[in-house]
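Students often ask why we bother encoding 3D structure as a string. The short answer is that it lets us treat folding as translation between two languages. Here is a chain of 258 residues written in the first language.
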Amino acid sequence: MKKTKIEWCDSTWNPVTGCLHGCSYCYAKEIVNRFGGYTSAGSKTTFNPYTRPAELHHPMLLGDRKAPYPFGFHPTFHRYRLTELQKWNEPKTVFVCSMADLFGDWVPLSWIKDVMDACCVAPQHRYLFLTKNPKRYLQLEKLAILPHGDQFWYGSTVTTEDDYAAWFDINGLHWFVSIEPLHGRVDITRGTGTMPEWVIIGAETGNRNGKVSPDPEWIREIVSGCKAFDVPVFMKDSVHSYWAGSLLTEFPWEEPRG
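And here it is in the second language, the structure alphabet:
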């Protein structure tokens, strides 16, 4: 676990790294391209010697340091990280698998179960999860694998209206939406399902070809929909250029500010 520049959490924890979604705007893949690989025969490589998803019981090295992404962005389970949470006595808000999609269809069920078990034995923390594959939440709930409780928050990543579905109908689970990067209009009030308990808004960063700058009206529409249903809104710093006035930085587990 380590400190992070992500504004809406205290720390990140990555027992699983890597992703197969292939999003062109992925910040995580850019980081892996810079820091991925491990040392083999004196040279840096990302070659994966495993014929199935890689599971590491001990860290690999890149030079004289632990290699955080030894096989690049190939999904990898760092089992040796499972005990890290218990070593942090001070309660933190932890973004779980910021460098992966823990709920991608390619992730073995056993990986998800072991990650959840590790969270449960460190109940002093609050855990935030994000996925672009929210239907797997429904599948996991049927298998009784998703922990319930106020410290567990399950999020869906949304970039446009096509990604959004206001239908998260699992009783007893907290859920939220991270609209980042915002690439189009998103009407969070559409549909007949339960409204999210929290909405995060972020603009695309970096300088890739095809980068999308959000229309300020898209942001105003999201905020208006949230306010109509008393849904807290958290705006990342990347929204500053597209929003007139102070950024909203609300958390659903905090008392509303007067």
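Translate back mentally: Residues 155 and 176 are 5 Å apart (CA to CA). Keep this in mind for the problem set.
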